[in-house]
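Cross-check.
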Amino acid sequence: MIGAGSRVWRRRVRRADRAAPLVCGALNLAAAVAMAVVLAPGTPIVADPAQRAAYVSAHQVEWRAGWLIWVAAGLSLLWFYAWWRARVGAPHVVLLVASLGFVADITAELAFIVYLVTEPFTVALTGGVANGLYTVAGALLTLATPLPALARVWAWSMWGAGALLSLGSFAGAPMLVVSSTAVLFALFCPWCVYLAARLR
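Predicted model, tokenized:
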């Protein structure tokens, strides 16, 4: 009976493990939608700080809920990267890099949630530092993964968009951030589904 219970538990763990890329893709899609629909008017894409502050003040529940979705998306990304690393035997440093990215991400996002502001420092922390580290970790995983030529072009286009997002965040260039974010998420969410099928 103990052995049978252990086998059932292992099967459930394996099934949950296989869900990692799909959950990550779904939550990152939800985060992108939240940014476009709820969060964008409170970010530096709106040049007037007073206008941003007024929007956030009038939509506090939606603002906090939107950033909580981003927190969940970040956690799912760590899970996805751990799943991906295990499948291809990439070095463990990948997870260290991604975890440092998440620390920067959660620090900025908690500031958005608690203080209801998007200051240049916190924007650079999440869009520049966190996204940059996530991009480096993804690039390291890509290097360790045997991929057909088209998938490799897809992956490097995705990480290129991630690099531009970081540069735009550090430079305070909102339109570069918006355009590169759109490209990054348009490539990344289906990438999760692709790897779920390829590396299962």
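The chain has a mean pLDDT of 92. The two ends are 29 Å apart (CA to CA). Passed to J.P. for a second look.
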